[in-house]
């Protein structure tokens, strides 16, 4: 089957192609642009696209294509803008631009395959024109990953917050009627907290919602972390996953027993974040 390339979709003229550049936005060590896009697309479409450190990425009159990284060799097209003005700023937003309405139906929906083997964030479109393959066009604007199955859940604080606050239907339906033993990992320290979601605690969705609201869910050691390092520490370093899940008919006592087993296996009472 013949590949569909991004150039086929956008259909730039040969004159335009000379003026097109592509900006690839990916995790910078602190922030994931995918999460930022879901919260506020303009944070990527202006803030990340037109941010400059030392290098001058664009010139007035050029066309800027903006991607953010979705996964291994996959990128989401978030906007295409005509660069209208340079602001002569370093370490800040250095350009102004006008979004090209002609391509608006593709923004947030077109997923492209591209193996980025260079360090530069910005490349001339003509240099990679044959390497940008359209792999998928989503039916709606990208709003986060689909539920991957209980065995594959691994969420940052921000990802979990987006799922809950945006009420992502597939995730909500998967979590709201499940009992579970879950794992919270402090990626900075490597310490674990083992918890359980039972009927008395409102199932997994309700339990995890409390962590989004206050960061600690009532756990005293997590409260200590917040008091010492602030809520932002939780938001930046905590990861949420599922060790075991059960349907609503399973007796709560079984869940509690399994929670204790995992605490012993991972030694989370002695070297982790569990007090009991």
UniProtKB/TrEMBL annotation:
Q: Enumerate the transmembrane spans.
A: none
UniProt keyword Signal present: no
The answer to keyword Protease applying to this record is no
Give the protein's recorded name.
Answer: GIY-YIG domain-containing protein
Keyword set for this entry? Plasmid
User: What species is given as this protein's source?
Assistant: Sebaldella termitidis (strain ATCC 33386 / NCTC 11300)
Question: InterPro entries under this entry?
Answer: GIY-YIG_endonuc, GIY-YIG_endonuc_sf
Domain named GIY-YIG is located at: 177-272
Specify the domain of life of the species encoding this protein: Bacteria
């Amino acid at each position: 089957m013949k590949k569909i390339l991004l150039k086929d979709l956008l259909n730039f003229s040969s004159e335009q192609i000379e003026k097109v550049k592509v900006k690839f936005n990916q995790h910078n060590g602190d922030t994931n642009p995918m999460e930022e896009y879901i919260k506020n697309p303009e944070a990527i479409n202006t803030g990340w696209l037109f941010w400059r450190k030392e290098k001058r990425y664009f010139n007035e009159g050029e066309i800027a294509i903006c991607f953010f990284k979705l996964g291994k060799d996959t990128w989401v097209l978030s906007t295409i803008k005509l660069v209208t003005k340079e602001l002569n700023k370093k370490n800040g937003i250095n350009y102004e631009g006008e979004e090209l309405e002609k391509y608006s139906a593709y923004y947030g929906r077109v997923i492209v395959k591209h193996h980025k083997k260079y360090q530069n964030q910005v490349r001339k479109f003509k240099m990679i024109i044959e390497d940008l393959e359209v792999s998928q066009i989503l039916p709606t604007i990208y709003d986060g990953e689909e539920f991957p199955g209980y065995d594959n859940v691994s969420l940052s604080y921000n990802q979990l917050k987006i799922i809950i606050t945006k009420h992502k239907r597939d995730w909500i339906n998967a979590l709201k009627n499940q009992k579970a033993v879950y794992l919270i990992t402090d990626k900075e320290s490597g310490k674990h907290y083992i918890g359980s979601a039972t009927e008395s605690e409102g199932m997994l969705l309700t339990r995890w919602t409390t962590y989004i609201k206050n960061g600690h869910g009532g756990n005293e050691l997590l409260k200590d972390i917040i008091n010492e390092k602030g809520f932002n520490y939780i938001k930046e370093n905590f990861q949420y996953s599922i060790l075991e899940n059960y349907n609503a008919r399973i007796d709560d006592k079984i869940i509690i027993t399994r929670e204790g087993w995992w605490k012993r296996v991972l030694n989370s009472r002695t070297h982790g974040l569990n007090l009991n």
